Amino acid sequence: MVVLGSTGSIGQNSLRLIEKFGIGVEGLVAGQNWRLLARQIEQFGPRLVAVGSREVAEKLTSLHLSHRFKLFWGEEGILELLEESQSKQVINGLVGESGVRPTLKAVELGKEVGLANKESLVVAGQFIDTSKIFPIDSEHFAIWELIKGRRDEVVKIVITASGGAVRTLPLSHFSRLTPEEVLDHPNWEMGAKITIDSSTMVNKLFELLEAYWLFKIPNLEGVIEPTSTLHGLIELKDGGVMAHLSRPDMALPIAHFLKRDGVERVIPSLPLVGLQLQLLPIEEERYPVWKIAPLLLRQPQLGVVVNTINDRMVELFLNRKLPFPAIATTILEGVERFEGAEVNSLSQLWELKREVERWLDKRIKGGRWSGV
Question: Strand order in 89-92's β-sheet?
Answer without folding.
Answer: 70-73, 48-51, 27-29, 2-4, 89-92, 112-115, 133-135
